[in-house]
Amino acid sequence: MTQTAAPESTRIQEIDAVRGFALGGILVANIGFFADPRYAVGIGTLPISEGPVALAVSTLVLTKFYVIFSFLFGYSFTLQMRSWGGKVKARMLRRCLGLFVLGVAHGFLLWIGDILTLYAALGLLLLTMRDVRPRTAVKAGCWIIGVMSVIWLLLAGLTLLDPGAAASPATDAAAAVRAEELVTGGPLDFLRFQVETYPMLAAFVWIGQGPMAMALFLFGLAAGKSRLLEEPERWAHLVPRIMWLGYGVGLPAAVFFTWSSQADDAVQLVGLAVNNVTSLLLATAYVVTLLEAVRRVPAIGGALAPAGRVAASNYIGQSVLACLVFTGYGLALAGELAPVAVMGVAAVIYAVLLALSAWWLRHHRQGPIEWILRRLTLLSSPRPG
């Protein structure tokens, strides 16, 4: 990758479309925990863990879409650097502070799997690395992924030597029942569940997703400095190879990941090691497929881009709507719907948010959460309208 120079950045519809697409995958990955909160008390288990829906979600969605979102965070940081100029340090510090506060509120009030606090912390680390060359950033990201994969493989070896060394956490039946009762009780019961569960799951998110997210931040930083998504003609000739690697290698590896997640501890750890690398291949194939589709049918980008422009508001909005359906804040349907119905709810929520995003942006320049973050970042009130 070679860093290039260009005028001050403007919004890039393709990036917004990819971000809007990633929001759909994140919703599908997360909604199972809202639909069946018993899994939240058994770290290491998967939501909707049986049947074809679970197999499809685990294979095609889990761990694929947060890496896209993480990559776009790093890429967007380069756009902000171009726009902010010499004020990038102070503004990024304030933005990360805002993300952290928002994430804590989100985690305790709505969604125990919140990732904004992690992004805020890693964003500060990315800030310190903002001057690294694209090639160096790519190498650092590869080292992170490689080291994490080796750690998983070493743990797998230790498990073979001592089967009790890395036993998978089990879901206690009584705790699972209590979790469902709290979530489907009144609002105060649900808040109690959040307060009890969020700190534990937040630690799991930081440890489990933190290194990979940082690697993708660095890949996004390198890609943004090289303007890869702004100049797709530079890599258009690689599209067939990306598709082959993504679907030809990444998809079979994703099937192995799903199968291994139901196997013994050592095989699970091997599956995680393989998935660390191959999930990136499949996620990249998804992105390239989407960009090719947008190029051929611009209406696809037009439908997805508004949601991507107000991604933070949509991320919070997903949690609000899921809570209204599944928790004591609303209908309290957790544990009541079949997996197919849960996916139907996810589709409806996603469609509603796509429509709301397009409507909102016809009257406003930013989403409500984006407006708050921008005001804190710039320490000024954005222009209305």
From TrEMBL:
TM spans (from-to): 20-41, 53-77, 97-128, 140-161, 198-221, 242-260, 272-294, 315-334, 340-361
Secretion signal span: none
Pfam families per the UniProt record, alphabetical: DUF418
Keyword annotations from UniProtKB, A to Z: Membrane, Transmembrane, Transmembrane helix
Source superkingdom: Bacteria
Domain DUF418 positions: 223-379
InterPro entries: Bact_Transport_Assoc, DUF418
Protein name: DUF418 domain-containing protein
Species: Planobispora rosea
Lineage: Bacteria, Bacillati, Actinomycetota, Actinomycetes, Streptosporangiales
